[in-house]
Amino acid sequence: MKQPLLAFNDKGIYCHQADVYLDPWRPVTNAIITHGHADHSRWGHKNYITHHTNVPIIRHRLGEINVTGKDWNETFTINGVKFSLHPAGHIIGSAQIRVEYKGEVWVFTGDYKTEDDGISTPYEVVKCDAFITECTFGLPAFKWTPQAEVMTDINNWWAENQADGKTSVLFGYSLGKAQRLLKYLDPSIGKIFTHGAIENMTEVLRPMVDFPETIRVTRETKKEELAGNIILAPPSAHGSTWIRKMTPYVTGSASGWMAFRGARRRRAVDRGFVLSDHCDWTGLLESISATGAEKVICTHGYSDIFSKYLIELGYDARTANTQYEGESGEMDAKKDVEEENAEKE
């Protein structure tokens, strides 16, 4: 039986011919990394290869690692296998990995989104025979509103809170989501403050993107300074002692999971904004169709449901287990779906 070009084992996605892993979750000798989120770029590998814009990101998170940066579409060959990185549009520096050997082409998406967010290199369709896709939001219920409309809602929300004399606290992941929000916040409304984790990552990315001015929240920051302004914070800050100095404040969360009312209620946020760094249902289907791939392997997310739908469409589709989390790392997606369905019955 012919060995597949890419196979899943207990360490990650493995290319036997090149002896290289893609986004491995256990320490290996050679790793090609799609992007900087912790579930895809882990500590402990001997050699890292990634897009050059991702190099400072993973060094910030992992320390002094042995890493080589590549350009978009730059082909590099390992033991006869051709590799290249192509924009995934997920966050800054995020890549798809194209793998070619003896005329056969596979693509691993990592995480990806098709909407151009204005700070990440836009998603690029890569033709292939086999496509390994995430399915974080692989349900028909997920359909994203254009980013510009969501950001208008966020800025209006901030202005309304300011008029009420309240501070706005907006939650988003420290890498990717926070910078996407920051880029389009309206500084004419007020000052933009940041949690230390977000400020540290934003400092790494400022050489690549023109962001508005931010002010780090420190122990010396007084509540009076924050009043009427907006604070970007990671979801983990919600309910912490750190947030108490913001009183009176109003909370908002930006995530794809905010499409479910139950998610907003259970996370005890006052307002949910549906903004994801992943494809929605339509984006996934259109991306797969555009690749021309006949074989599709569905990984993290709603992989079972999504793969069954692909089979109905005529694809050779199956699922594979990984240790990637997508946006579900801090969101209990299963409970959100169950609660939303219960409300509709």
From TrEMBL:
MF terms (GO), sorted A to Z: exonuclease activity; ligase activity; RNA endonuclease activity
Region Disordered: start-end pairs: 323-345
Catalytic EC class: hydrolase
InterPro entries: MBL, RibonucZ/Hydroxyglut_hydro, Xnuc_lig_assoc
Repressor in keyword set: no
EC number: 3.1.-.-
Biased composition, class Basic and acidic residues, residue ranges: 331-345
Alphabetically ordered keywords of this record: Exonuclease, Hydrolase, Ligase, Nuclease
PANTHER family: BLL1145 PROTEIN, CLEAVAGE AND POLYADENYLATION SPECIFICITY FACTOR FAMILY MEMBER
This protein's name: Ligase-associated DNA damage response exonuclease
Record organism: Flavobacterium macacae
